[in-house]
Design a protein that fits this description.
The complex is a heterodimer of chains A (145) and B (273). By secondary structure, chain A is mainly alpha-helical. The two termini of chain A are 32 Å apart. By secondary structure, chain B is an alpha/beta fold. Chain B has one domain: 3-Layer(aba) Sandwich (Rossmann fold), CATH 3.40.50. Chain B has 9 helices and 10 strands. A 7-stranded mixed beta sheet of chain B has the order 6-5-4-7-8-10-9, with helices on both faces. In chain B, strands 1-3-2 form a 3-stranded antiparallel beta sheet, with helices on both faces. In chain B, a hairpin with a 2-residue loop joins strand 2 and strand 3. In chain B, helix 1 packs antiparallel against helix 4, helix 2 runs antiparallel to helix 5 and helix 4 packs across helix 5. Chain B is globular. Chain B starts with a helix and ends with a strand. Chains A and B meet through helix 3 and helix 4 of A and helix 3 of B.
């Protein structure tokens, strides 16, 4: 069984990873889908760990409880209230722009190469839409908390 | 015989997947002529080719021998219709076509079961209704997406399969004066198909004596991507039971959405219990 110190170290390390991902998200103007998914995955990962460890932390008051509270505050005040909203706005805009570009490119007579090259743009749009849905689902989750 | 044609079509599809090296979003083949594996009237094959050659979703075609059968391969792209359907939020399931040959085999089976009218619900480009018309059945094509209905109207110049732009769950089916119809429900159970089928069943149930004479063809899926229905039938078991229907036969046929899958699309034919 892991010692209290091991648990603290693990939680601290995951929190630092999250902090780093949030900083990258805040500084970048154009996150790719992989970066977005990785960031949300880490938020969910750390939030779950915090929930699980809280009970243990209450029975052994000390640095772990303080760390959990600090991390939860970061997720709530920094990620949920700011970073998440920025990511959602960016991906929504990106979906809007891609949609508009693809709509304006409509023409019935396109050469085969053009149709197949455009199909890749449609695929990117589908990926962006599915990521937007994932991000929106996170938002619905926090609004029900 | 129809089951054999369906089986042979699936066998040829598997051959086609191995030899196809193009990059199109959708692709399918239609035999050039009658063969032992696919003994289909030449005049019917000509009409199926005409549908494909006049259909703007296909942008390329070429000859290819698949297994022992000389075929024409049609390559297509349906992205602009997908974009239109998501823009208007009109469609519960975005357009993705069954194969022409599958539509034809499905209509053949409907005819063999004794149905005289085919109503293609959520019909996309109207191919099932068209195939029914090729087989000299009465056919109607109900589609909510206006862009797709415009496409259907251009295809209906060859054979009038009665394209109609309407929401299938509010459509007045009594206006068609149906006697022994079969309804092909477009869309998988898990992709809006249940709501669509339930709505149509409800409308038909309100027309005197029609439900007991009606048949139903549901497009199922065996994909693990979707949660299974506790009553099975490839996603349709609960709806079949709750509406007092019984499954008559299931035939597996190739569709655009199963091209890269090992399982084909099971079409579940059902009738009133």
């Amino acid at each position: 069984m892991a010692s209290s110190e091991d648990i603290f170290q693990m939680f601290d390390s995951e929190t630092k990873k999250l902090q780093n991902l949030i900083d990258i998200a805040d500084s970048k103007t154009d996150m790719n889908i992989h970066e977005i998914v990785e960031t949300y995955y880490q938020v969910m990962n750390v939030s779950s760990m915090a929930t699980m460890l809280k009970e243990q932390a209450y029975s052994e008051p000390g640095s772990l409880l303080a760390k959990i509270r600090e991390t939860e505050k970061m997720i709530s005040e920094k990620f949920d209230s700011s970073t998440h909203l920025k990511i959602l706005a960016k991906i929504s805009l990106s979906v809007q722009v891609m949609t508009k570009n693809l709509q304006s490119g409509h023409s019935d007579e396109k050469p085969k190469e053009q149709v197949e090259s455009d199909a890749k743009l449609f695929e990117s749009l589908r990926q962006a839409m599915s990521t937007r849905e994932f991000v929106e689902q996170y938002g619905k989750g926090i609004s029900h908390d | 015989m129809i089951s054999d044609i369906a089986k042979n079509l699936v066998g040829l599809k598997k051959e086609f997947v191995k030899v196809y090296d193009g990059n199109s979003q959708i692709q399918e083949f239609i035999p050039k002529s009658k063969s032992e594996l696919l003994p289909i009237e030449e005049s019917h094959l000509d009409l199926l080719h005409e549908f494909a050659t006049t259909n703007p979703i296909y942008y390329n075609s070429f000859e290819k021998k698949i297994g022992s059968v000389d075929c024409i391969v049609y390559e297509g792209d349906i992205n602009k219709y997908w974009l239109n359907s998501i823009q208007h939020g009109s469609s519960k399931a975005p357009f993705s076509p069954t194969w022409m040959m599958s539509g034809y085999v499905g209509a053949m089976f409907a005819k063999e079961l004794g149905y005289s009218e085919v109503i293609d619900i959520g019909s996309g480009d109207g191919r099932i209704a068209y195939c029914a018309k090729v087989l000299d059945m009465k056919s109607y094509s109900i589609e909510i997406d206006d862009m797709l209905v415009e496409l259907q109207k251009s295809l209906a110049l060859t054979l009038d399969f009665h394209p109609c732009c309407s929401d299938a769950v509010t459509f007045d089916y009594s206006s068609l004066r149906l006697t022994k119809p079969i309804f092909f429900i477009g869309g998988l159970a898990q992709m809006g198909g249940i709501a669509l089928a339930s709505g149509v069943l409800d409308k038909i149930g309100h027309i005197s004596n029609l439900k007991k004479n009606s048949g139903w063809a549901f497009a199922g899926t065996l994909s693990k991507k979707y949660s299974a229905d506790p009553k099975n039938e490839a996603g349709w078991g609960t709806l079949i039971e709750e509406n007092n229907l019984k499954s008559v036969k299931t035939i597996s046929l190739p569709t655009a959405w199963t091209f890269h899958e090992s399982d084909e699309t099971p079409y579940i034919f059902a009738k009133s219990n």
